[in-house]
TrEMBL record:
Family: Belongs to the glycosyl hydrolase 17 family.
Keywords: Cell wall, Glycoprotein, Glycosidase, Hydrolase, Secreted, Signal
Sample GO molecular function, one term: glucan endo-1,3-beta-D-glucosidase activity
Catalytic activity: Successive hydrolysis of beta-D-glucose units from the non-reducing ends of (1->3)-beta-D-glucans, releasing alpha-glucose
Enzyme Commission number: 3.2.1.58
Organism: Schizosaccharomyces japonicus (strain yFS275 / FY16936) (Fission yeast)
GO-annotated biological processes: carbohydrate metabolic process; cell wall organization; fungal-type cell wall organization
UniProt signal peptide: 1-24
Name of this chain's protein: glucan 1,3-beta-glucosidase
Uppermost EC category: hydrolase
């Protein structure tokens, strides 16, 4: 099935048949930064406050590194202590070699210390193929290596990675599909310069293409698939016809993200909180939060 040739209504029908069966509404999960507004690293109390703010909307977050900012050292106790019973998909950064070695040892050290009750899975890398940091087979090897390391230490956790939707569609990524227990497809209509009339269609089309390609490769519609990152900046410059504003972010959320959630797909909103430390020189980067850096909600997250 080629989703790019059919309209939004057609997509809804296609998705309904792909996701046949009474699936609950897809969950709203969040990508979580590990730094304060000033760029210093968060501690356990900060993560506890993050969970408090996110709890009305969500119970799953994802992070990108085990050792940067000592993420697991401070996140794992927060996961264990929080009364909101959060789970995390924790990221291992696979480059460069010395960083990767640190990442693997922090992963095992803190899983041994805190267990896996609050860990839903492990990602190896984020947009590795998009940036060309590793080839698909190099990334697949590292994913298999992390899976084996987990097993060798008695942990049975699914291993996946997140990459841009078009990389999943690209047949060159098949070694990564084969090495994945779950899949995260990132799609930002903002970075495709889409205006409000086409941003929803574009997001749904991209995401369904990624899902369809993975299902075809795996030979089953029964895959564990997430939108790994999506969102819209509420400030900073426009990109093509895409305007960075709270109104457009709210509309993108309501139409595109509530749309895909209604088809049973879990999403990770990028991101939970604004990250002012990234600086205005980075354009829209500081402004992707669903909440500002003081944890105030910017727009309605109900569907
Ligand atoms: C609208 O989105 C569709 C699906 O991604 C895309 O094929 C088309 O080029 C977009 N239209 C414009 C004007 O960008």
């Amino acid at each position: 099935m080629k989703f790019s040739t059919i309209g939004w209504t057609g997509l809804a029908v296609a998705a309904a048949s792909l996701l046949r069966g009474a699936r609950a509404e897809g969950a709203l999960n969040f990508c979580l930064g590990v730094k304060h507004a000033d760029g210093s690293c968060k501690y356990t109390d900060d993560y506890l406050a993050d969970f408090e703010a996110l709890a009305p909307y969500s119970s799953v977050v994802r992070t990108y590194s085990t050792s940067d900012c000592n993420t697991l050292q401070y996140l794992m106790p927060a996961l264990a202590q929080s009364s909101h019973n959060f789970q995390a998909i924790i990221g291992v950064w696979p480059t460069d070699d010395s960083h990767y070695a640190l990442e693997k040892s922090a992963l095992i050290q803190y899983l041994q210390q805190y267990g896996t009750d609050h860990v839903k899975g492990v990602t190896v890398g984020s947009e590795v193929l998009y940036r060309g940091d590793l080839t698909a087979s190099e990334l697949a090897n590292r994913m298999n290596e992390v899976r084996q390391l987990l097993k060798d230490n008695g942990f049975n956790l699914p291993v996946g990675t997140a990459d841009s939707w078009n990389l999943w569609v690209d047949g060159g990524s098949d070694p990564v599909i084969d090495a994945s227990d779950f899949f995260m497809s990132n799609a930002f209509s903002y970075w495709q310069g889409q205006d409000t009339s086409n941003m929803t269609n574009s997001f749904l089309d991209d995401t369904m293409q990624a899902m369809g390609r993975i299902q075809a490769r795996k030979g089953t519609s029964d895959i564990s698939f997430y939108v790994g990152e999506t969102g819209w900046p509420t400030g900073g410059p426009s990109y093509g016809s895409a305007v960075a504003s709270t109104d457009v972010a709210a509309k993108f959320y309501k139409e595109a993200l509530c749309g895909i959630r209604s088809w049973g797909v879990d999403i990770f909103y990028f991101e939970a909180f604004d990250e002012p430390w990234k600086g205005t020189d980075s354009g829209v980067e500081p402004y992707f939060g669903a909440m500002d850096s003081n944890r105030n909600l910017k727009f309605d997250l109900s569907c």
